[in-house]
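Continuing from yesterday's entry. The apo prediction looked reasonable, so today I'm repeating it with pyridoxal-5'-phosphate included to see how the binding region is handled. Same sequence as before; SMILES copied from the compound registry.
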Amino acid sequence: MQYKRMPIEIESPESLGYDSIECNLAESSVRDVQFKDIDINLNELVIAYGDHIGKPALRELIAKDYKNISTDDVLLTVGAAAALFIINSSLLTKNDHLIIIRPNYATNIETPRAVGCEISFIDLHFEEKYALDIEKIKSAFQPNTKLISITTPHNPTGTMLSEEQLVFLCQLAEENNCYLLVDETYRDISFQSPTPLAATLSNKAISISSVSKAYGIPGIRLGWLITQEKSLQNLFLAAKEQIYICNSIVDEEICFQYLTKKEKYFPAIQQEVKTNFSILKKWIESHQYLEWIEPSGGVVCFPRFKNEVDIDIEKFYKILLEDYKTYVGPGHWFEQSKRSFRLGFGWELQNAFEKGLNNIDKAIEDARKV
Ligand SMILES: Cc1ncc(COP(=O)(O)O)c(C=O)c1O
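Holo prediction written out below.
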């Protein structure tokens, strides 16, 4: 494996220091929860090694939301990030070929790169509303294609595949005897009804998710992968055991108790996202300098400067952070032009969020070449 640090991690808000940011619009999740606001009791917990697949009661709780999915189809991982690592490093070798959409959450691309496999990128374009053209995936197949990798709802654009597209991708994977990895980390914050969990549609589909993005508890590092294919589960368990044996049982217990009461916590989180989203929509739809493709899910979007806007882009980001203490995710985090940036609308509460948008306006004025 050839590891390389990714700009999105080197320049992440936590690497920069949360203290240096007042309006954090770079974050890709909902607001982080504080322990005092949730009802967690760890007094009876024995701090032993846990079940290697993952706490059975937690896996059962996750599985029961989906048709055809059993407790044993769920493998707990250290965040969705570890699920991505396990899947990509178990399935891909230097001799294999991967088809992957771009832009994407950086790890989805970087881990296959570290493996050294052959990669065909299916690029999404603003002009095409960041929609996935499945025909492009179809024509990218090679005899050694082992995996198709997609993200829906998508990071950084917030666009979503339709159910028909997902079903078609599953068929393509079956016909070509390869696997379909679907990063569904944002599925629980779809604005319309979510697409079916990919792993319910085919034995070739692997779904991944976590509690980081929709539930506000990324610090416990709890995610999962789901597949109905027993031989795959066994392969992924072998990888997990070699990397870290089992999850932290403290994390598993916190996650279990939190998700057991999710009906109590989730509506307020959803309401906050909804409020910020309507502020954002109003702001951007009448914006003089920025344009967007409206997201259909998740808590991020990927606006860009209109073509005719003459701006010193480096100066814009510098002023935005240094003078206005406001942070967004520049396009290069996603291998895109810096004229686009990821804007997160789930993390800050309304006042700081509005202030952040206002600061973007001020930084644009300061950085414009007039
Ligand atoms: C699409 C997507 N997948 C996976 C992850 C990894 O998240 P975690 O490991 O915290 O679950 C992220 C984090 O930003 C993400 O946006």
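Comparison notes:
- The chain has two domains: 7-32+263-367, 40-260.
- The longest strand covers residues 145-151.
Will overlay with the apo model tomorrow.
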